[in-house]
Amino acid sequence: MPWGWLLGALLLAAVGYVASCAWWPFAACRRCEGRGKFKRKDGKVWRPCRRCKGSGARLRWGRKVWNRFAKVRSAAK
């Protein structure tokens, strides 16, 4: 009986994550913490973040999977 609850909770969490990836495909860049730039070590000069190319956003893992699936599906048609 407890396995049913656990499976239901996992399914609900997975559906919630998929919905959040569809609604909010981008998250803050981890390297620059969403600022898009960071200070040089001496603190005098601001540089654009190389990882996000200065946008401050990164594509979430679930959205990357979603995009790959959509690309494969459209190529199969």
Short structural summary:
The chain is an alpha+beta fold. It has helices spanning 2-23, 61-76, and strands at residues 26-28, 37-39, 46-48, 57-59. Strand 2 and strand 3 (46-48) form a beta hairpin.
Task: Summarize this structure as a short list of keywords or feature phrases.
alpha+beta, 4 strands, elongated, HSP_DnaJ_Cys-rich_dom_sf
SSE succession: HEEEEH
Share of residues in strands:
15-25%
The biggest sheet amounts to: 2 strands, antiparallel
> What structural category characterises the helix and strand content?
alpha+beta
Uncertain segments: none
Give the spatial strand order of the biggest sheet. Answer: 1-4
Shape: elongated
Measured between the Cα atoms of the first and last residue, the distance is: 42 Å
SS element count, helices? 2
Model description:
This protein is 49% helix and 16% strand. It has helices at residues 2-23, 61-76, and strands spanning 26-28, 37-39, 46-48, 57-59. The protein is built from two helices and four strands; from the N terminus they run H-E-E-E-E-H. The protein has a two-stranded antiparallel sheet. It has a two-stranded antiparallel ribbon with strand order 2-3. With 77 residues, the protein is α+β, with helices and mostly antiparallel strands. The protein has a domain at 29-77. Helix 1 packs across helix 2 (61-76).
